[in-house]
Amino acid sequence: MLIYWELFKTFLTIGLFSFGGGFAMLPLIRQEVAIQHGWMTETQFIDMLAISEMTPGPIAVNTATFVGHGQAGILGGLAATFAVVLPSFVVVSILYHFVKRFRQNQAVDTFFKGLRVVVIGLIAAGFVSVLFDSVQDIRAGLIAVFTFYIVTYKKAHPVLAIVIAAVLSLVLYWG
Length: 175
Known about the structure:
Number of domains: 2
Strand content: under 5%
Number of strands: 0
Structural class: mainly alpha
Mean pLDDT: 89
């Protein structure tokens, strides 16, 4: 029973103190899941992110479900998932009415401008931590740079980029 409470409390904290979506949540998720609680290693964390990105749905919800299920089965997955979405649901439900009413207010507009900058910083921190944990040799770096290039500059569809990266991984690592 203690593990369900621990999962709930941990993912409620992540949901409460993370702004800007899944990628902005990554530093806090990593801190709680891999470092503080030791529910997975850094390598397992990176693998879990890859799986969470490939499956439909928000990365934070997929991560919570994955970690919760891994620690305590279906009920653990449900506890963690419910906990991570609960704060957003409550806050958005309440704020919707206030933002709709006060959106033209200069203080509210300034607050949201500042919040956007914080989100960029959180996403960058998540990117850097995943980058250093994932790119472990020159081949992985080349695949990462090539994938970034074809998606950003050649406007390749992300699914096509994943397939190309998988083929490149097979070619560069197999043998």
